[in-house]
Amino acid sequence: MTVVVTGIGLVSALGANADQTWQRLLRGDSAIALRQPFSELEPRPLAMLGKQPAHLDPLLTAAAQATIQDAGLSGQLPNCGVVIGSSRGHQAQWERFLTTGLIDDWAASLPHMGAIAVARHLGSQGPVLAPMAACATGVWAIAQGADLIRSEQCDRVLVGAGEAAITPLTLAGFEQMRALATTGCYPFDQRREGLVLGEGAALLLLESEHVARDRSARIYARLLGAGLTADANHVSAPDATSYAGGLAAIRTCLERSQLAPETVDLIHAHGTSTRLNDLYENELIQAVFPPSVWVTGTKGATGHTLGASGAISAVMCVLALHHQIVPPCVGLRDPAFDLRLPQTAVPTSLTTALCFSFGFGGQNAVIAMSRP
């Protein structure tokens, strides 16, 4: 059964909706700025939606409303499945509990309640899933939603992820790991120095193709296959010795999508701007794909939204296919690798795209899509 994308919703530090984010991205804008949201911590480059840290549920419901509207639907959707993940969930609320000693409505802060909040908003009585796979969460959610349609459990599923990751514990944890940048985010650049945390949510409405065509829906893209693996190697670092987990995810995705490496036009890399991750992805891409494939990453514009990053990357791939434009790798000035990395937006013919997402614990997720 063919699964298609008929609606997208995106809230990012770069823009309040998908169109605003996309247009600013094409201009090469970045939402990253020096911020100090917590007085007890030093200022850091961050990609925030506002002056104060965002909250998860409003992010997700705003993205859900935008997605449903974009898909040309309205009202309650009782038969719509929901697969929405987050790697941090309502961690900010638990941190406030610890500092204030007040625990109000603690049940609403459980890890799966973001997905539940969206399901209630939609009136959904279908399957509701809330995957957590570190920074690979967003792609996991999309793959699981597509499987619900292919297995004929649902005709349509709202999928994606959100993250309100700007919290004292998250900042302190990444600082302890020495993973945070001090000046900015520069994916695949010689001067890359670490990641920049960001906030955001990205959702997609998936439908079976026959349901979408029956209602004359606009079809942005077809979802092909996915590859989901784990390294079983280290709590935070990828397996940079054998690259086995990452390679397996790529090759499984290509096989399930019936794609050859030379037929892939665009790869949206995870592109965290850390020394290790960018090197790791370079080795994976060089091992599998020809030099002609475009490789981009958008965390230099949106920041690293952790669990939501894969969903945001997937929306960027959908928009790239829809508009036939390779978005720039914002923050890149002096490439460190021999990859086809765009420093400005490039109008070109695009038929297929892959989205890479890698997370702590050796989570590897790759998903493929094509023009309808």
Automatic annotation (TrEMBL):
Alphabetized Gene3D superfamilies for the sequence: 3.40.47.10
Organism: Leptolyngbya iicbica LK
Ketosynthase family 3 (KS3) domain: residues covered: 1-371
NCBIfam families in UniProt: PRK05952.1
Keywords associated with the record: Transferase
GO biological process, one term: fatty acid biosynthetic process
Molecular-function GO terms, alphabetical: 3-oxoacyl-[acyl-carrier-protein] synthase activity
UniProt similarity note: Belongs to the thiolase-like superfamily. Beta-ketoacyl-ACP synthases family.
InterPro entries in the cross-refs: Beta-ketoacyl_synthase, Ketoacyl_synth_AS, Ketoacyl_synth_C, Ketoacyl_synth_N, PKS_Beta-ketoAc_synthase_dom, Thiolase-like
Name the record gives this protein: Beta-ketoacyl-ACP synthase
